[in-house]
């Protein structure tokens, strides 16, 4: 039987696109080619943009969205790490000279809040190393996915499924989750397209 889009995950369809192996799209041994073709057509229709955009432009948008997210998370990581380390050193120094009041780093609070908003990762003051390791892991994951899906791609190639996935997650500022089913991903894609249209309208209005 062919899986429905409520049961096919992002990982399943990405594996199919890369290998052509239909096993990730079926459950059991018995299925009909016409049912598979119908499912692939359904997926293709949902992956198509609401507007018939040029493929190269779509690919570049997805690439830039992913790259911007990686760079933004790196900036947050470096700024937060530097402030945490400096704050610890300053507080120790103040304690040594008898000024027990801790340093006031309002920027640190702002960065920590932005990290949680962007990734869901909480930087706990009492165990900040764990949160920062989690953020570093998230950056590495996005970087690896970017390299896998955008490096060494030929200019004439169209947009791959995973390039669309990365673009959608980047626009929505969600952590990558390849276990999401396609029906949920298609809804996320529609939301991302609306955001992109709004962003473009704002830029054109400037």
Percentage of residues assigned to helices: 55-70%
Radius of gyration over alpha carbons? 22 Å
Percent strand: under 5%
Shape: elongated
Instruction: Tell me the structural class.
Output: mainly alpha
Number of strands: 0
Q: What do the pLDDT scores average to?
A: 80
Distance between the termini: 52 Å
Oligomer: single chain
What composes the largest sheet? none
N-to-C series of helices and strands: HHHHHHH
Report the total helices.
Answer: 7
Low-confidence stretches: none
Q: Any overview of this molecule?
A:
The protein has 206 residues and is mainly α. It has a domain at 57-146. It contains seven helices and no strands. It has helices at residues 10-19, 33-47, 55-96, 106-119, 128-150, 161-172, 182-204. Helix 3 runs antiparallel to helix 5 (128-150) and helix 3 (55-96) crosses helix 6 (161-172).
């Amino acid at each position: 039987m062919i899986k429905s889009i409520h049961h096919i995950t992002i990982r399943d369809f990405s594996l199919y696109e890369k290998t052509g192996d239909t096993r990730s799209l079926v459950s059991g041994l018995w299925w009909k080619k016409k049912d598979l073709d119908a499912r692939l057509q359904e997926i293709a229709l949902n992956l198509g943009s609401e507007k018939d955009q040029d493929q190269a432009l779509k690919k570049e948008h997805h690439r830039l969205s992913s790259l911007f997210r990686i760079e933004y998370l790196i900036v947050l990581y470096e700024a937060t790490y530097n402030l945490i380390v400096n704050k610890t050193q300053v507080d120790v120094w103040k304690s040594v000279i008898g000024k027990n009041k801790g340093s006031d780093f309002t920027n640190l609070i702002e960065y920590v809040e932005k990290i949680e908003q962007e990734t869901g990762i909480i930087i706990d003051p009492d165990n900040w190393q764990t949160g920062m390791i989690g953020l570093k892991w998230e950056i590495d994951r996005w970087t690896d996915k970017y390299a896998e899906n955008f490096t060494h791609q030929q200019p004439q190639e169209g947009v791959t499924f995973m390039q669309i996935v990365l673009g959608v997650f980047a626009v929505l500022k969600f952590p990558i989750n390849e276990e999401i089913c396609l029906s949920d991903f298609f809804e996320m894609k529609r939301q991302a397209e609306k955001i992109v249209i709004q962003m473009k309208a704002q830029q054109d209005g400037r």
